[in-house]
Write a structure and sequence with these properties.
11 helices; about 40% helix; 3 domains; five-stranded parallel sheet; Rossmann fold; alpha/beta; binds protoporphyrin IX containing FE; Globin-like; NADP; Elongation Factor Tu (Ef-tu), domain 3; binds flavin-adenine dinucleotide
Length: about 400
């Protein structure tokens, strides 16, 4: 809860802060990297270049201010859970919040100038620290659950096998170099992989574990990102595609905010492209447990060659008593024009949970069709392979249609 005086100030100044929040975050990041260059290794620099992380941070602060003022119309715990898991995957520590807070509040002053009186600075400082405390405590709980600290989050893993998983997709099997068993994961969990791109520069990326828990390796399936229209090739996926068996990368303990992989309710999964990875893990885990849960997997892809993990997923579905799958290609195997997923035409089980993973426009289409068919929005969850510019479709998301279309 905000102090009553600060709540009044935040309410009065929220419109001007919200109007300038994207500008503020654009000032904030360069300022923070200039003051703390070691953080260039912690933040995804492609997200900075294409502007997604500033938008995600801005959206979350606006959403939090609405939440504090009591006019948020969505589940903020889910937002905290998503950000906290991402932070833990990146080994963020409580002390880092002081650095971020100092630079963010300075950036607010830089952008808003004289409008930031000491009282206004104090009120927005309280918003920041209330958000920080919520995140720090959520992160502390996750670190405790996985029995790690920020210092022990990332450990060396050897690439013990590399397998083709479709056009421009490969599965990398990773094993801890100290010979220990990989930590347990829930299907849908992801790891951060941190690679040394130059002597003085490393970068993290997240990859969903594409295999079931309980195996001797952590398997990730990576799509190689090729730069288009003069943009560079993907830094980390290209680095991984250049690796060989025996090479070593740093890998975090698996984490994630997925809530649907266990339970009795039917689960309907929609994936597109490399978004198949969490679905593959869920299906493999179900098969390993002889699950009789009703599982329906709908996958969309460019064509059969691009369909990642096609054989693994098909074999798991065939082995499960209550699972079925359907696949839609834009280009059919016989070269004829295919189609797109048509949610209205699907026979959906009663009382199902829904899980989506693919591009944001794909997920927005599926979600709005499901809601149109009477599905409760609370039964639909999703994974975005980048910063969440969408926040579950909350009204406070600052992402424009143009920004969403780029994801
Ligand atoms: C929770 C989660 C799970 C994920 N799971 C998977 C998974 O299972 N499999 C998978 O393949 N991926 C997954 N991802 C995505 C993955 O983390 C990476 O984002 C992806 O591999 C691309 O990383 P990269 O380093 O290769 O590309 P990046 O270097 O990050 O580049 C990304 C894009 O930005 C563009 N870009 C970079 N720099 C610039 C610039 N200066 N100007 C203009 N454009 C630029 C590039 O051209 C490219 O199109 C997941 C992401 C998240 C958050
Ligand atoms: C109240 C303070 C903070 C807020 C509101 C916040 C908010 C966010 C949000 C919304 C995301 C995107 C999550 C997603 O959808 O994937 C994110 C990711 C991230 N945050 Fe924070 N954060 C805070 C503090 C910090 C701190 C202290 C650090 C460490 C220095 C940090 C480092 C990161 C990194 C590295 C990412 C991954 C995204 C990327 O690299 O582009 N954050 N944060």
């Amino acid at each position: 809860m905000l102090q009553p005086d600060n709540a009044e100030i935040v309410k009065a100044t929220a419109p001007v802060v919200i109007e300038h929040i994207t500008e503020i975050t654009k000032v904030f990041y360069p300022k923070m990297f200039a003051n703390n260059p070691e953080l260039l290794n912690v933040f995804n620099q492609a997200n900075q270049a294409i502007g997604e992380q500033p938008v995600a941070l801005a959206s979350s602060i606006v959403a939090y201010a609405h939440h504090l003022l009591g006019d948020a119309d969505f589940d903020f715990d889910a937002v905290i859970d998503r950000i906290a898991n991402k932070h833990v995957a990146l080994a963020i520590a409580p002390a880092d919040y002081t650095v971020v807070g100092r630079n963010l509040l300075e950036a607010i002053g830089d952008v808003l100038g004289d409008a930031v009186t000491p009282e206004v600075a104090c009120a927005w400082g309280e918003v920041y620290w209330l958000f920080a405390v919520d995140l720090i405590s959520a992160e502390a709980r996750i670190y405790q659950q996985i029995e790690r600290t920020p210092d022990t989050m990332l450990t060396d893993h050897e690439i013990v096998a590399i397998e083709d998983a479709g056009t421009d997709a490969r599965t990398f099997r990773l094993a801890p170099v100290d010979g220990s068993e990989p930590p347990a994961h829930i299907p849908g969990h992801y790891v951060s992989v941190v690679v040394q791109l130059r002597d003085d520069y490393r970068q993290p990326r997240q990859y969903t574990i594409s295999s079931a828990p309980g195996t001797s390796t952590i398997d990730i399936t990576v799509r190689r990102v090729t730069g288009a229209d003069g943009a560079p090739d993907g830094a980390v996926s290209t680095y991984l595609f250049d690796r060989s068996v025996g090479d070593v990368v740093k890998v975090s303990v698996p984490v994630g905010d997925i809530r649907v992989s266990h339970g009795d309710r039917p689960l309907v999964m929609f994936s597109a492209g490399i978004g198949v990875t969490p679905m593959a893990a869920i299906l493999s885990a179900a098969r390993a447990q002889n699950s009789d849960r009703r599982l329906l997997h709908v996958h969309a892809d460019a064509d059969v060659a691009h369909h990642p993990l096609r054989e693994q997923v098909a074999a798991d579905i065939a082995a499960l008593p209550n699972a079925s799958g359907s696949v839609v290609y834009e280009l059919n195997e016989d070269g004829t024009q295919g189609g797109l997923v048509d949610v209205a035409a699907l026979d959906l089980p009663q009382d199902a949970l829904y899980y989506l993973c693919g591009s944001v426009p794909f997920m927005q289409y599926v979600r709005s069709e499901l809601i149109g068919r009477g599905v409760d929005a609370g039964d639909i969850s999703y994974e975005i392979f980048g910063p969440d510019l969408w926040l579950g479709g909350s009204a406070s998301s600052q992402a424009s249609e143009e920004e969403l279309a780029r994801v």
